[in-house]
Every structure is written in structure tokens, then in C-alpha cells.
Design brief:
By secondary structure, the protein is mainly beta. It contains 6 helices and 22 strands. The strands form 4 sheets. The chain has an 8-stranded mixed β-sheet. Strands 10, 13, 15, 16, 17, 19, 21 and 22 form an 8-stranded antiparallel β-sheet that branches. Strand 11 and strand 12 form a beta hairpin. The structure holds zinc ion. The site of zinc ion has 5 residues, from loops.
Length: about 325
């Protein structure tokens, strides 16, 4: 899935720099808090951008109207850029940069290859990854829900392979648009990225957000896309993986019912299943996950992106994700 074409790296001339501006819009950032946790990093050629673990940055490259392909590389992940046309504005290329919840804090290069016919050049940006404060959860679950027997372990491994294979294919077209839908309007537990200690043993961090809702509640697709695979897996239960194009996937787990089939086209807000408690869950809830070019990001960062009603992203900082209330955190449901 990930290809990183090697291109001639060309230092940008002063003239080019005046022609090229890049704007990175941050979703849910507290700059003061951000920098209090991390040492300041050297400034990049075109400025420095930052986000916390699990966040999504919108990167805009302007002044490359004639480019035929724009592609970024960040921490070995490929970031495809797409063209944005707005009446009365210069054309620009936009890329969604996902910061994985486990990317080590630090400063990394976002290298952007710009191709125009036979010509190629590379832009370079510094991106500061700041630490997010994730919760630590101590869970006590029945032993068979935590430790798989040999048969269960083999099943789990096969299921992982099945998902990996299905997701190796992705739509090269951008299918999503700027209006993201919250799949279930329920109780957000705020446990994205939580470090989990199950029965005293450290486990994988929680790679999505859990939303508590009554059994049978409608679950909507967050945006337009293609159903890449539907599953019934040991941990995730009945689930749907939607491919929104350009390496962006959303996932919906623990469903009681799946209402779509592999290959179906879905639109934002379309009901694709019902809330359930299948797989490793102790009560009905939706596990909502998002992968962006391989990075596991907080799905709610999509709703916070500065795209509203099809408008061009503006330089405003999006509303930060509200902290869950203690009551919301108390939902005893995992995976
Ligand atoms: Zn979950």
C-alpha cells in the first residue's frame, strides 16, 4: 500500500519560497499546554507545525497549480495530497496528516514531493509531535476474555491477516467530503489511546473511541466511501471497515447487526449497522476507529477539522475536543 517514490531533492530557492506558502491547520490544539511538555524544536524551512499524538493536521500547499502530483512522506507513511478548487482563490493541494497515537514525541520531517510533468522538487517541513496525556485503565475481565487459548490465538492471527489484506487495497480517489458525521450520538468515553492494564498485564492501547449507546441504536457512516470488508471477529465482533479513499479508513465494531455488504457504496450518514456488544465487549457500545495512511488517529479529530459546510479550511484553530466527564469515563466496556 505504501510506496515512497524516490525523487530528486531540490533545495527550494528564495524565489520559490516566496511563491509557496503552506498552511497547517491544527485540530484541537492547546499551544500553551503543548509546548509546556516538549522542548522547542528547530524551525523548518517553511515554518514548524505541531500536533499531539492521535491528531490530524491539514496541510495545504499553495502556489503549485501546475503540479501533476503532490505526495508527502512523514515517518515512512505516504501522505497523498489532493487538489482543492475554490472559486476566487488560488488552487492548492491539501493533505491530511495523521499523527499515530504511538508516534514518539519529537520533531520529524514532512517531505513533500511536487511533480510537474518531468520536473520534480521537494518541499520540507518540520512537524513537532507532542505527547498526549492518555488515560491508564485498569481492567478486570474474565480470564477467557483476556487470554486466548491456542485456538483463539490462531483465529485472532488469521483475522488480523484478513483485515491487513483487505486494507492493502484502497481507493485512489478521494471519496470523502468535508462534512463528517458522528456515527452515534451517544456517551463518548474519552478512552482513545488509553493504556490498558488487563488483569494486571499491560495490553495494546485502545485504538479508537468507545461510544455508549443502547442496543440497536443506528450506526451511521461518518462519510462517503466503499465498504471494504465486513467481519465477525473474536475481539471486534461484527464490524464494518469503510474505505474513504487516499488511505483513510473508518471502522465500526461490536455491532449487533451489519446492514451493508463488502463493496457497497455508502454515503455520509447512511445507516450501516446497529449498536451491539459482539466480540470483547461487556455492554452495548460502538467502537469507532479511524486510520489515516496507517496512523491510528482519534476519530473525533475528524469532526474537529476546520472544514465546515464545504468551506475552505480557514486558519482558525478548531474547537478542542471536550474532556469527557467522569460519568462518561465510567462505561465498563472495552475493546
Ligand atoms: Zn473500543
Amino acid at each position: 500500500m505504501m510506496t515512497t517514490p524516490t525523487q530528486t531533492s531540490v533545495r527550494i530557492s528564495r524565489l520559490d519560497r516566496t511563491l509557496i506558502t503552506a498552511v497547517v491547520l491544527l485540530a484541537s490544539i492547546f499551544p500553551v499546554e503543548l509546548f509546556s511538555h516538549t522542548a522547542s524544536a528547530p524551525k523548518g524551512h517553511d515554518g514548524q507545525y505541531s500536533g499531539k499524538q492521535g491528531q490530524v493536521l491539514v496541510v495545504k500547499v499553495k502556489g503549485e497549480e501546475q503540479a501533476t502530483e503532490v505526495k508527502g512522506t512523514f515517518l515512512k507513511r505516504t501522505i497523498p495530497f489532493f487538489r482543492e478548487f475554490r472559486p476566487g482563490e488560488p488552487d492548492g493541494y491539501i493533505g491530511l496528516l495523521g499523527i499515530d497515537m504511538q508516534d514518539e514525541p519529537g520533531t520529524y520531517e514532512l517531505a513533500v514531493d511536487v511533480k510537474q510533468g518531468e520536473d520534480a522538487k521537494q518541499l520540507s517541513f518540520n512537524v513537532l509531535v507532542a505527547k498526549e496525556k492518555f488515560h491508564v485503565e485498569h481492567l478486570t475481565l474474565p480470564k477467557d476474555k483476556v487470554d486466548l487459548d491456542e485456538k483463539g490465538a490462531a483465529r485472532w492471527k488469521a483475522e488480523q491477516g484478513q483485515v491487513k489484506q483487505a486494507l492493502a487495497e484502497n481507493s485512489r480517489l478521494k471519496l470523502w467530503h468535508s462534512n463528517f458525521v458522528e456515527p452515534v450520538n451517544g456517551k463518548r468515553t474519552g478512552i482513545f489511546g488509553s493504556v490498558r492494564i488487563m488483569n494486571g498485564q499491560p495490553r495494546n492501547p485502545h485504538n479508537g473511541e468507545d461510544i455508549g449507546a443502547p442496543l440497536g441504536t443506528d450506526v451511521a457512516a461518518t462519510n462517503d466511501g466503499i465498504v471494504r470488508i465486513t467481519v465477525d471477529h473474536i475481539f471486534s465482533g461484527k464490524g464494518v471497515f469503510v474505505d474513504h479513499g487516499l488511505g483513510f479508513y473508518s471502522m465500526y465494531f461490536h455491532l449487533s447487526e451489519v446492514l451493508v455488504k463488502d463493496g457497497d457504496l455508502v454515503t455520509a450518514g447512511q445507516i450501516i449497522g446497529k449498536v451491539g456488544a459482539t466480540g470483547r465487549a461487556t455492554g452495548p457500545h460502538l467502537h469507532w476507529g479511524v486510520k489515516l495512511n496507517g496512523a491510528r488517529v482519534n476519530p473525533y479529530s475528524l469532526l474537529d477539522l476546520p472544514f465546515k459546510n464545504g468551506a475552505t479550511p480557514s486558519a482558525t484553530v478548531a474547537t478542542p475536543t471536550p474532556e469527557p466527564t467522569p460519568a462518561q469515563k465510567a462505561v465498563p466496556i472495552k475493546e
